[in-house]
Amino acid sequence: MTAKMIVAFGDPILRKIAKPVESITPKIIKLLDDLTDTLYADEGRSGLAAPQVGILRRVIVMDCGEGLVELINPEIIYKSGEQIGPEGCLSYPGHAGIVSRAQSVRVKTITRSGAETIIAADGFLARCIQHEVDHLNGILYIDHIKDGLFYNEWTNVRANLLAVTKLSHSK
Question: Which candidate in 22, 82, 87, 132 is catalytic?
């Protein structure tokens, strides 16, 4: 198991659609384990999708305070309600934006043992699931920012979203 380098904001791989996992192989198990090592390599990390380490597979790991959650080929099948709040990304550390997400979701996924399951999530876990599933579809949280509310997390100074968006598409 190995902690991987996280792909930086602006890398074109973050805008690509990840490919489904066809079967649970030792390579997929190793990817889950490596993603978990990467997630836990630093404090304060909540979720990580395979494209964020340069691998275009539909695999996610998360720990939103209730223990490790692994998602393989996740598909959000239900959304309800709304929550609006700050969101950041490991691929662009130090910045956050105000994003609207569903308050509750249900996601159909496959476990590492190959079983299909449905996970119901509310609040922060629902936010994390939506953020990470977006990564699998080449969508970034900046695509959802409300009214350009984008800021530096350390200074709380508003940042120029347009400049950042241009940067993310220019590489």
Answer: 132
| Residue ranges per structural domain of the chain | 12-170
The dihedral built from the CA positions of residue 23, 70, 134 and 142, taken in this order, carries a sign that is: negative
CATH 3.90.45.10 fits 12-170, yes or no: yes
The string of pLDDT tens digits covering residues 98-131 is 899 999 999 999 999 999 999 999 999 999 999 9
Separation of alpha carbons 47 and 73, rounded Å: 15
Q: How far is CA 133 from CA 70, 77, 128, 152, 155, in A?
A: 12, 12, 8, 24, 29
The model carries a pTM of 0.89
70 is catalytic: no
